[in-house]
Amino acid sequence: MPATAAFDDPTQLPRHVAIIMDGNGRWAEQRGKFRVSGHKAGVKSVRAAVSFAHQLKLDALTLFAFSSENWRRPEDEVSALMSLFIAVLGSEVRKLHRNNIRLRVIGEHRGFSEHLQRKIADAEALTAANTGLTLNIAANYGGRWDITQACRRAAEQVAAGELNPADITEHHLGSLMSMADLTEVDLLIRTGGEQRISNFLLWQLAYAELHFTPVLWPDFDEAAFSEAIAAFVGRERRFGCTGEQIRALAEGRGIGNRD
Ligand code: IPE
Ligand code: IPE
Ligand code: MG
């Protein structure tokens, strides 16, 4: 039975899944190898996760590939990661395009070499009109950077006389954050056993369900992804309401609140 058979009711599935792909270094170290071989092994898990998200017809999959803090790593690891990023963009983009997948890279592109920035821009342009899964790769991304760039843009709008400070609302700032045009993140998965956000999506995770698994990223396969989705399906999301209100909503009854 395909794993997807357990997820027949698409209304129960998350629409947008984000993943902190952690544990590559430990995976390699456990095998007596260099950390970079763990990053290379992680590429096949990226392929598997994208293909599963595509099969499940999710709206969006957002993968944390390189944080704004990962520049602190040893220089040879950083440069190996950049080379891997360039190589993977080169080898995978056409396949993504054939599958109607739209690729976006979120984060501060200016931190990358011009060569990589060009590759990213080309890949985004090639796939921009695709209507299937949106695949966001978070690279040189930090949740605090994202909130800061949104605030800076709002300040620029005020300085240009286009915006009144009173109109800097949650809704307006939200519209300036990365991925503002996509469905909200429903489910965050972190592999590798740590239970923290590590400056990933701070604003966008406000009401996401969190799933932590000890599985190291290179071992994260369809079964592990299915397990995370099954855990999500079993949860009740209340968005500040009571459980009774949510059940009433699901049954089409009113929830008797002030909205
Ligand atoms: C995640 O794996 C990949 C990146 C941060 C680029 P790690 O490299 O953090 O692996 P561990 O946590 O050291 O095992
Ligand atoms: C988070 O993992 C970043 C990515 C997976 C890209 P880290 O391994 O960098 O996080 P910390 O350092 O353990 O918090
Ligand atoms: Mg790590």
TrEMBL record:
It catalyses: 8 isopentenyl diphosphate + (2E,6E)-farnesyl diphosphate = di-trans,octa-cis-undecaprenyl diphosphate + 8 diphosphate. Substrate binds at residues 23-27, 35, 39, 67-69, 71, 73, 190, 196-198. GO terms for biological process: cell wall organization; peptidoglycan biosynthetic process; polyprenol biosynthetic process; regulation of cell shape. Its cofactor is Mg(2+). GO terms for molecular function: ditrans,polycis-undecaprenyl-diphosphate synthase [(2E,6E)-farnesyl-diphosphate specific] activity; magnesium ion binding. SUPFAM superfamilies: Undecaprenyl diphosphate synthase. The active site is at residues 22, 70. It is an enzyme of class 2 (transferase). GO terms for cellular component: cytosol. CDD domains: Cis_IPPS (cd00475). Binds 2 magnesium ions per subunit. Its EC number is 2.5.1.31. Keywords: Cell shape, Cell wall biogenesis/degradation, Magnesium, Metal-binding, Peptidoglycan synthesis, Transferase. Pfam families: Prenyltransf (PF01255). The keyword Magnesium applies. InterPro entries: UPP_synth-like, UPP_synth-like_CS, UPP_synth-like_sf. Mg(2+) binds at residues 22, 209. Catalyzes the sequential condensation of isopentenyl diphosphate (IPP) with (2E,6E)-farnesyl diphosphate (E,E-FPP) to yield (2Z,6Z,10Z,14Z,18Z,22Z,26Z,30Z,34E,38E)-undecaprenyl diphosphate (di-trans,octa-cis-UPP). UPP is the precursor of glycosyl carrier lipid in the biosynthesis of bacterial cell wall polysaccharide components such as peptidoglycan and lipopolysaccharide. Belongs to the UPP synthase family. Homodimer. This is Ditrans,polycis-undecaprenyl-diphosphate synthase ((2E,6E)-farnesyl-diphosphate specific).
